[in-house]
Design goal:
alpha/beta; 7-stranded mixed beta sheet
Length: 465
């Protein structure tokens, strides 16, 4: 018999879209609830320090609850906060930053500027990645329907399941015609017996699809085939071209590997231009099928302007941009300093960074390819100049302790930390405490309807504080 917890008030949020309540000294995690909800909950799993439960019934709805707009909410897992009013999403994202700095970095009362909201809370993304699957992931409604026939799927991977794909009819995070393109491709492929990929048997024609756009209305579509013959490829690609003349650039890849990554594969341009162009502020950036680029370009300008403001650059200063990617931050910074040196491990991104500087007539940037632990060294500083300011924008895992140590020994007077993970940012700041002091931080919401939050922090060397 299922054990039940009665009159549980949800008081906070946790990761993975879960709400949090407490009872008898234990933390209780519940999916799809909002702080302020009062529920009866069925226990699903018990651990020493926490319990996982599901909603049995709502006794009271939170005043901060709102109706999700997306029909796939609660299943696809991509927008786990759609049932919470945006103002409350911002409140808890800012709280996430503060909690990390207090709890992990050990800063008693950090100065945190007001969170910067996103101008758009839907249709803000410039990229969506879809997966094909021979068999769809069945929702609870479909499982209960004994007569339902399992269909092939084109949609999103179920969280934590590489082989399970949920059929998606609509996604509200990107402008049209993204939904029309995806639904057309699925319908046409089924009609023409172009098969969908099975990630267990590694069989099937169609594997993945990527759709990108720019704020100026350019569109790029990338189809990743697993094993389709030339006739099937041509039939599908020509049909896409005919149905969507607004597509600026149409590519395909052939991926016969055991995994879905395609960054080591050669793209084939089927029609249109090789790249699309995004304008951010006064700068323009070219985007190809394998280019890493901020997925909320409008808000990315605000993020970079925040970093630029925090850096307070002077014309004589040398800036290091760590994890530079395609050089977006480096190019933003370049006009206010003497020189920017960018370091990035992905060679193709470095090539793109150099092209971005060239296309914007920027002459005071240099970019280097290499693993950060190996490249950022005393000999590198001696060869290319010691930094006055360091900008670091690491991946979610944060920086390796060796990289943190090199920053502390660089002599840089200021460090601007751009983070997509407050926990690892706080951990790295704690490692820098003997050399640098956190002055302030500012959360920037790049991804409404999700738990993700970006943050910009400025640290100064103790002697300059």
């Amino acid at each position: 018999m299922t054990k039940r917890i009665e009159n549980l008030e949800i008081t906070d949020i946790a990761d993975e879209g879960r709400g949090l309540g407490r009872m008898d000294g234990r933390v209780i995690f519940v999916n799809h609830v909002v702080p302020g909800d009062v529920i009866n909950a069925d226990i699903k799993r018990k651990k020493n320090k926490f319990i996982e439960a599901t909603v049995a019934e709502y006794l009271k709805y939170s005043a901060h609850r709102t109706n999700p707009l997306c029909k796939h909410f609660g299943v696809c897992g991509g927008c786990k906060r759609q049932n919470m009013q945006y103002e409350q999403q911002l409140f808890y994202k800012a709280k996430q930053v503060r909690d990390a700095l207090v709890r992990i970095a050990g800063i008693e009362n950090p100065v945190i500027e007001e969170i910067l909201p996103s101008a758009e809370i839907y249709h803000y993304r410039n990229r969506l990645d879809f997966a094909f699957s021979e068999k769809e992931w069945l929702t609870a409604d479909k499982l209960q329907n004994k007569e339902y026939q399992i269909q092939p799927a084109l949609g999103f991977h179920i969280t934590g399941r590489f082989d399970k794909v949920l059929n998606i009819d609509e996604c509200l995070l990107m402008d049209e015609p993204v939904n029309r393109i995806r639904n057309f491709v699925k319908k046409f492929a089924l009609k023409e017996n172009i098969t969908f990929f099975n990630r267990i048997s590694q069989q099937g024609d169609l594997r993945n699809m990527l759709v990108r756009n720019t704020t100026s209305g350019q569109w790029m579509v990338v189809i990743i085939f697993a094993d389709a013959n030339e006739e099937k490829r041509s039939k599908l690609l020509n049909a896409i071209n005919k149905e969507f003349p607004e597509i600026t650039s149409l590519y395909y890849f052939i991926n016969q590997k055991k995994n879905d990554t395609f960054f080591d594969l050669q793209p084939v341009l089927w029609s249109g231009t090789e790249t699309i162009t995004e304008k951010m502020g006064s700068l323009k950036f070219t985007v190809g099928p394998k280019t890493f680029f901020q997925t909320n370009p409008v808000q990315a300008v605000e993020l970079y302007n925040t970093a630029l403001s925090f850096a307070a650059l002077q014309p004589h200063e040398v800036v290091y941009d760590l994890y530079t990617g395609t050089g977006t931050i480096a190019n933003f910074m370049s006009k206010q300093c003497k020189k920017v040196i960018g370091i990035e491990s992905v060679e193709e991104s470095v090539i793109q960074a150099k092209l971005n500087s060239e296309s914007n007539s920027i002459c005071n940037t240099e970019f280097f390819t290499g693993d950060m632990r190996e490249t950022l060294s005393a000999s590198f500083f001696e060869t290319y100049g010691f930094p006055d300011v360091i900008i670091t924008d690491p991946p979610r895992a944060g920086m390796h302790p060796d990289v943190v140590s090199r920053i502390c020994n660089s002599g840089a007077g200021r460090v601007v930390y751009v983070s997509c993970n407050p926990s690892t940012m706080a951990r790295d700041i704690a490692l820098m405490k003997d050399t640098y002091t956190l002055v302030k931080a500012k959360p920037v919401d790049m991804f409404p309807q999700t738990d993700h939050i970006e943050c910009v922090a400025i640290l100064t060397k103790h002697s300059l504080s």
